[in-house]
Design brief:
Blueprint: H1 27-37, E1 48-54, E2 60-68, H2 78-87, E3 92-98, H3 108-123, E4 127-134, E5 140-142
Parallel strand pairs: 3-4
Antiparallel strand pairs: 1-2, 1-3, 4-5
Length: about 150
């Protein structure tokens, strides 16, 4: 009897020309883009974790929603995060999540997760440029600006 296994196919479809992709120049430009893409009907209801995928010129390839949780937290599977990052041939990323309460202070869990992802990214030469906490009103907290990366 012949042993069979599943065939794995990997694909990435980028339909927007690279020169037309938005360029991230600072935390404000990343926060503005992220907030503009956030679902305003749910930003005050539950926490969502997303990643902004960037090329080597800091142009945004896309934003991927990794998880949606409850009022005070959401689970992030770092293996799935890096599966998306590697599949999209991303060289840098910005972590994004919202705090429905509007509080911008990062929790200890936020800090630990950021360091865990940053450390994992170093193994693949993938830069974690920032981690932004977005409030329902559009304000944000930047780990990079606060020297926490």
């Amino acid at each position: 009897m012949k042993t069979k296994v599943n065939e794995i196919a990997i694909s990435y479809n980028g339909s927007i020309h690279v020169n037309l992709l938005p360029k991230i120049t600072c935390s404000q430009s990343a926060a503005d883009l992220a907030f503009g893409q956030w679902n305003k009907n749910s930003i005050e209801l539950h926490e969502t974790f997303k990643i902004m995928l960037l090329n080597n010129a800091n142009r945004v390839k896309g934003i991927y929603e990794l998880s949606t949780g409850g009022i005070t937290g959401t689970l992030v599977d770092v293996r799935i995060l890096f599966a998306v990052v590697l599949k999209s041939v991303t060289t840098a990323l910005i972590l994004l999540h919202n705090h429905p309460s509007g509080t911008l202070k990062p929790s200890e869990a936020d800090k630990r997760l950021t360091q865990k992802i940053k450390k994992a990214g170093e193994l693949f030469d993938i830069k974690v440029l920032d981690h932004l906490i977005i409030s329902p009103g559009g304000r944000y907290y930047s780990f990079a600006d606060e020297g926490m990366l």
